[in-house]
Amino acid sequence: MAKKSIGPVRREFVPWENSDHPPFIEFRNVTKKFGEFVAVRNLSLKIYEKEFFALLGGSGCGKTTLMRMLAGFETPTSGQIFLDGQDLAGIPPYRRPSNMMFQSYALFPHMNVEKNIAFGLKQDSMPAQDIEARVSEMLRLTKLEQFAQRKPHQLSGGQRQRVALARSLAKRPKVLLLDEPLGALDRKLREETQFELMNLQEELEMTFLIVTHDQEEAMTVADRIAVMDKGELVQVATPAEIYEAPNSKFVADFIGDVNLIEAKVTEKSDAGTRLVSVVDGFVIDSEQETEAGLGETVWYAIRPEKVRIAQGRREEGQVNQIDGLVWDIAYLGDVSCIHSKVGEDDHDTIRATFANISRMVENPITWDDEVVLSFDRDAGVILKG
Amino acid sequence: MSEQTATPAKRTIGGKLLIAMPYLWLLVFFLAPFLIVFKISLSQIAVSIPPYSPAIDLAEGWQGLVEAFREFSFENYIWLTEDALYWKSYVSSVVIAAISTLFTLLIGYPIAYGMARSPQAWRPTLLMLVILPFWTSFLIRVYAWIGILKNEGLLNQFLMMLGLIDEPLVILNTNIAVYIGIVYSYLPFLVLPLYASLERLDGSLLEAAEDLGCPPWKAFWKITVPLSLPGVIAGCFLVFIPAVGEFVIPDLLGGSNTLMIGKTLWVEFFNNRDWPVSSAVAVILLMILVIPIVLFQNQQQKMSEKEG
């Protein structure tokens, strides 16, 4: 049997699977309160050297606060932060070996591109010719050579973003902190820049920590993602694990599109679990074992692209098949998404998406068609409430 | 097509009228009085009403106008260069204004900085406090300083009570009192533009500087000061320009040896009743002030271009 893995393998880099591997950055029981508001709640997290790590969450989830504590702009209310074995408590931002790329870029408006990039190097009283060499290297790396003498206000958004990146990389920090670095760019440029970031990270062999609310961005660039909610980590895993094996209803719902089906456990065995939909009574057979007891209500999360859709009615007695009625069709170009009504209520629908692999479709599915929705035993995930 | 071109044309007529308004204002209330003053400065003192000749009498018609023009001379201006009092007054005025401006900046910068860095909720109140003195007459506030600075005044009483001095300091009727008066009176004019430019300063710039290894005190000099320079320049001009021509403060607080052109002008006009010479003094004062005013305008223009 072929080796199975969750999602594609990006690179052979899995230090987190080895419990002896020393972490490069460690948050140990960190709590941060702003008055009564708890921004970060008793959070522990390990990040490894040369890792590209993403903090992902909605606004106000505490991801930026966590990064700002690492940079030194906020002090933890309790707990410790270690970087390369050193406790960061009491070390001011200007003596920390990390550099940050700000969401607003925070370029110095009275200095040209060259001076902006050289600013950090000058603080270290580096010899002038070394500064010059490093600046021209950074200009080359970020393709900004012909803009060296320009002031920030004479640059486009994309160019400013690259200056900010060059400035934060110039000092060769132990960790580069990226605070929503691509938020201000348009979609095309953002996607390009994501790959540039990944290449840079590999080339410079640095540890990158990115804060973002954009799940696609996090999934594209990161080795591991920490999904945050209300100041706590919900799940820390690779992008594929986060997507294919979410550990909670929150993560399943937050990342990508998902059908969440409320179901009761009816059978448990070594071969897997059987569930019955609470609302519509169809049977789900999963190879996953669950801690939930018999009769307990759980959620079955299945991604729309893992639901097959075909015209017709289901075969009697078959599991993982549901009769539906086409309710809505969204044609998105690359994929189509079909909402099928599986119960009495108009909102009781299951979404199925499929790639539009050919231009011409014979006998296409259309509104009010009777369809059968089916899926494999390993297609979905059982989640406790 | 024709409609498209018609609309901007209509607008320009309205626009021109709008633009003409301030020019008209300047013409009536600045240029015309200036020309009258300039004309008087070319006349001679005379015992008559008005106290100079020639006085243009339109009843004499064109001939009279031509004759009057023949009598005009620059004698008063030559007189200004001959008597050392005048150029000494000018130089002394500029020096006093410059020193006062420097002190105003040294006191005003921390005030503006503190205001810009204070919690958002406090700022309107602080701004209000800066403007508050304007609710009392300028003259009365300067008079009040006499009560504070005189030998048996509040300041001396306070210092003697503390035992810091045995006999009263002589401050009133010296240049020091003039400096205090100017700094006090013009402080809001420096604080307001400076506060505006400091408040606009993006806090993340300072964080970025610190993140790149720059301690906060150094970041102040490398980031805050250069970026607040437009505010500093605007504020300094707003103090320096009126301070040069200041009359009330040196008259009330200064001593007999405080030489300022505003005072010289007053004496020339009211005591000597020499309208032509005092007019010449005023014209030269205006000429001297035109230089910093033009510089100020240039700087403002540059700033607005940069931001645009």
From TrEMBL, chain A:
Gene Ontology MF terms in the entry: ABC-type polyamine transporter activity; ATP binding; ATP hydrolysis activity
EC number(s) recorded for this UniProt protein: 7.6.2.11
Keywords in alphabetical order: ATP-binding, Cell inner membrane, Cell membrane, Hydrolase, Membrane, Nucleotide-binding, Translocase, Transport
Membrane as UniProt keyword: yes
Domain of life: Bacteria
Catalytic activity: ATP + H2O + polyamine-[polyamine-binding protein]Side 1 = ADP + phosphate + polyamineSide 2 + [polyamine-binding protein]Side 1
ABC transporter domain location: 25-255
A cellular component term, taken from the record's GO annotations: ATP-binding cassette (ABC) transporter complex
Enzyme type, top EC level: translocase
Self-association and partners: The complex is composed of two ATP-binding proteins (PotA), two transmembrane proteins (PotB and PotC) and a solute-binding protein (PotD).
Similarity comment: family membership: Belongs to the ABC transporter superfamily. Spermidine/putrescine importer (TC 3.A.1.11.1) family.
Protein name (database record): Spermidine/putrescine import ATP-binding protein PotA
Organism: Roseibium album
Species classification: Bacteria, Pseudomonadati, Pseudomonadota, Alphaproteobacteria, Hyphomicrobiales
UniProtKB/TrEMBL annotation, chain B:
Transmembrane intervals: 21-42, 90-113, 125-146, 176-198, 219-244, 275-296
A Pfam family reported for this protein in Swiss-Prot or TrEMBL: BPD_transp_1
Residues in ABC transmembrane type-1 domain copies: 90-296
Main location group: membrane
Cell compartments where the protein resides: Cell membrane
SUPFAM superfamilies attached to this UniProt entry: MetI-like
The protein's name: Putrescine transport system permease protein PotH
Organism whose genome encodes this protein: Roseibium album
Gene coding for it: potH_4
